[in-house]
Structures are given as C-alpha cells and as structure tokens.
## 1
Amino acid sequence: MDEAALEQVVVERIGKGIHTDDVILQVCHLTGWAWPEAESFVELVQINETDQIRRANFGLKLVLAGGVVLSGFGLIAIAGSILIFPTIGMDVPLASEPVAMVREAGLSATVLYVLLSTGISMVVGGILGLMGLYSHEK
C-alpha cells in the first residue's frame, strides 16, 4: 500500500471517530511497521490533515446540532401551546399570570418552566454548536 493511500485510510478512520490506537494497529497490520513507526506516521497525518479530518465529521455534527436546535424550538412550542390553548374560553385573561392559567388548565407550573428552560437551553446550545462548526471551517 502506498503512503498516499495509507494516509487516506488514516484520515477516514480518525474522521469516523475511531480511537487512535486502533488506527495505529491497523497501520501496523497494513504495512508491517513496528508500533512506534506507525504511531509517528499517524501523528504526522493528524497534524498535516487536521482540516480534512474535521470535514469528515462535519455532516454528522451539523445534523446533530441542527436537530438539537429544532428539538429545542419544538419544546418551546409545546410550552407555548400548554400556556395558550388551555386558556381559550377561561376566565383568566391571557396577559395575566401564566402560572394561574397553567394551574387552571390542570397542569403544574413546573412543567411549563421545565419545558421552556430545556427548550431555550437546547436552542442556545445548538446554535453555539453550529457557530463552533462554522468557525472551524473558516
């Protein structure tokens, strides 16, 4: 196996998140090199091909971060529907205390706060993750 092909194998394996020691072992099997020689080759590839290794994980991380953001918006929407829909036809005005509306609907106010805080946290965390992805791409 030539060195360029071996380098590509190392980049693909590390990009998939496979542990470095496992990649070194595979290099030893493919080339017949001793462990220290294979280890130095893998380390050199990691240093020289950092951008390519990051790009290998970009799609998965993008899907995960986007999914977290969308799920967070979903939780916020659920909390909003808990707050708004049960109050239709009630004597409590919409602009008054949300806790009173939720209690009158038969739900605990804690549910509303947990859904809202979790949803907001997911949106913020997902956006920070997306920003981190794009800052590494530049």
## 2
Amino acid sequence: MYACRPQVDPTILLHDDPRAWVELLGWGCIEVFTSAARPVGVKDLDGLVKYSTTRSGVFAGLLRGVEFFGKYAAEWGGLTRGRIYLGARTPFPHLPVAAERDEPVILASPAIALLPPDSKRLWQKRAYVLLRLLSEVPVRNLRLHLSQRLPEEWRFQGLGYVEVANARCGGRRCILWAEWLYWIEQGRMPHIDLRLGKFAERTERDKLLTSLAKDLKKYWINVKKPAASCWQLQRAEVANNTGGVP
C-alpha cells in the first residue's frame, strides 16, 4: 500500500501549477500519486498535474490504494470514497452588502469537479446552472468547457473577486461564484494561491485579500490542531453566510 502526508486539501488536484504541488504535497506524495497513475500513462510531475486537472472526475479513483496521514488525511480519505467538502475555502473579507445580482445560486465550489462519474445528481442539486453548460459530468477539460461556455452576464465583469464574493446571489454572498470564476480564469484554486502569496488580483479591491496573505500564511503554518484547521473555520464561516447550506 502507498502512503503519503499531504500538507494541503484535495483541491490541489485542480490546481494547475506544478510548483504548488511540490511545495504543498512534497515529492513523497507526488511519487506516490505518479505510481498510482502510471496505468493511465502518467510518467512525471507535469503529466500528473495535466492528467489531474483535465480528468479530475476520475483521478481520485486512482488513489484508492493510498493511505493518507496528517491533518488533511480525513478529507483525502473521504475523496477516495467519493466524498468531499463542497463549501468555500477562501477567506474573502466582508465588504458592505452590495445590490442583489441576477446570477443564479451555486451551492458547491469547484471541489465538486473531483467527484466520480456517479455524482450527476449532486451536480443537479448544487450546481445545476453549470451542469446545463456541460454535455456530461465528469467531463474532460472541465475548466476549458466552462471558460468557453460561461455566459458573459455570469462573469461579473468589472468586479474583483472580493467584490464578487460580497455580491448577493439569491440572498447569499456570491462567495462560491468568486471561487469558480477564479478557477476558470486562472486555472488555480484561490485559497491555495493565497496561501502561497500568488493570488491573482482582478481589480484594486482584491488587494484587501492579498494584504492578508502574510498573516494567513503564518496561521496556516502555525496551526497544529485539526479541530482548528482553516478548512473547518471556512466551513463554519460559509454555513453562517448561507443559512447552513455550504
């Protein structure tokens, strides 16, 4: 049995930046993942990242023989069994409440893209507006499909990611829309970029988030107890801002 101790949650599998994989997964996990994916033709880190980010809906199935350790072990283990936390993970700061937007409600982050082929019913419940743009789920190159098909009126033109997160969609903060837009446009997960000091700003207002990056990085490094993990804190925050629906 393979084993590894990842220093990041499973959404790294959607993060198209090999350097982030090295820094947060480490070569031990990368070698384990590469060995697990060798039957589908993966030979090195670049191939691993490419396969994972373009075939995200089937990649987790390759990890079923891997044993995970550390504070992220429970979530990685859950992913291999077809479960993952679908709430927001990025600590977008609060701004004064903006006007209600016409964009439809989304109740899942891009993490839903990591779920297996039998997850269509969950897509229908949590991200139906995006499912309508796809021929099937999981789909190859999901990010590319959405980039090409996402209507202009759903792109929050002229707003930064922080402003998108604070807009109101169906009475809730549009924080999940902000995460989807960041992933679609940048190819990386916003909370991971923030952790590494690489958050891509869309407008000046996004500096409100990037200015917090150093303190947040210190928090992520120093936190020791799983009960106080950033993932759980974000889960609580999202529940508070969505009426209990992550």
## 3
Amino acid sequence: MKATFAYLGSGLSAVGAALFLSGCGGGGDLSDGVTDLTVSPNSATYVSAMPGVCPVGTGGRFFIYGGRSPYKVQNSLPAFMQVNPERVEHSGEAFDVTLLGGCIEGGIINVTDAVGRLVTVSITAQAKQGASQPE
C-alpha cells in the first residue's frame, strides 16, 4: 500500500490520516506456520505546504504485521528522519516516523523480524512545487 500526503505543518490531512488507519496486514502461511511479514503502509510521500521548504514534523505511523516478533526498525537516513521505537514487540503494533526537515527521495526504513525476514518502507519528502513568493 502506498500513501501520499500533503504535509500541513505539524499534522497530516484527514485523507492522509484515514489512509494510515485503513491498511491491514497479514498474508498466507509460510512453511514454518508464520504469516508473511508486512508493513502498512509500505511507502509514503509527504509534500510541504510551502514552496521550497521540505516537510518537518510528524511523518506518520506504520504498522507491522506477521513474521515473528520482536521486530527491529532501522532507519537509513537518521539525519533526515527518525523512527520510534526502534524495536516493536508485537505484530499489529506500530512505529512512528518524524521528518527532520530535509527533502528525501526514496529513504528506506528496514523492518526485520526475529528470524531475519526483511521488509522495507520507502519514504519521500518533497518541497511544494511553485513560486516561493505569493503574488
């Protein structure tokens, strides 16, 4: 599931929030009886409200399903975004992303379960396109 959001200051649009909450996980049984490891949503794009300014603040909540808990959450771009917590204890729980102000194209968050299964979340944070001064 991919989600795209218009970034509105410190919060998300109502549509974006609804998309975060509408995802569900799961999957078919694997040979060891554990369901497929998934994250919902598995990607998100944030666009700032102001031209020329990258989004800052709450980036959203991402839910982990299946696999074998606990899960390790690793952020590939700690200078541009933070994840919290970095360890998720149970399937169905979530981690949050906070944007730190840099523009990101395809920033990756790795989620690994207790037996080494890996899924990734892709994050993009963009400045609004257009004139930087109102006319």
## 4
Amino acid sequence: MKHWIKIALFLIIVTCLLSGLPAVLGFSAEDASMGIAGAKRSLQIAFVNVSGAENAGGNVSALLIQLNEAGSDLTMAEVAFSNSNYSEAVNQAHTCKALADSIASEAATMENQAGDRLSRVLPVLVGGFIGSVALIVVLALTWLWFKRHSTGRLLRSRPKVTV
C-alpha cells in the first residue's frame, strides 16, 4: 500500500513539473503571435491618437520619435518570431505594446490640452472681430456725419466777392 502511495505521489510531482516546463523553457508560437497582434493594435491606436493630437495643434515631434521606436520594437518581434525565437518575440512585443500604450496616453492628453487652448482663444478672437467691426461702423458713421455737416456749412456760407 505504501508503495502505491509513493508511485502516485511521484506521478503527481512529475505531472506538475512537466506541465510547468513550457513556462520555464520559453513561450509558444501562439503566445508570440498573440503578443505581436496585441502590439500591432496598440501601435495603431497610438498612431491614431498622435494624428489626432497633431490635428488639434499639438507639437507631436517627440511622440513621433517614440512611435518610430515602438515600430522598430514590433519589427524586431516579427523577425524574432520568423526565426522561431518566441521568447524574444514576446519580449519585444511586450516592449512595443508598453511604449505604444504610453504614447497613446500622452497623445490623448496633448489633444485634450490643445482643445482647451482653442476654447480659451476662441472667445478672444470672436471678441476682437466684433470689436473691429464695431470700430469700422463707428468710424464710417462719424465720417458720414462730418461730411454732411461740413458740406451743409460750406454751402450756407456765402463768400462775399469784392471788386
């Protein structure tokens, strides 16, 4: 009876060790493929957010440099995947995804700040335009009044001609 318990315990330990072996040895092709797909999605989202921040008027030059670095990480992950180096592919994909998520967050913040800037500047621009139009109208009315007044006074005055 003790012998069967030892064998069962041995089989349980061996099964546990063998089930954890792929995690110790590295990642599977499926893990790497899923990691690369996730990194691609994150990179696309980051690109869209950077584009939106640029359209909102933000200075995105630093974000574009980081976006290029993330793209380079994704390329290295794809090369490692094609060389069957799945653990390196997963690591590079994870690096790309983390960087792309950071870029997307910064770009969204920058886009919101640019929108806030526009909402502060817009009333000033509208007020300046309305003020300019009002000034032109007042100047035109003043000119018309002086023209009529001075023309009437000039016509009423009769210069005397002496010979």
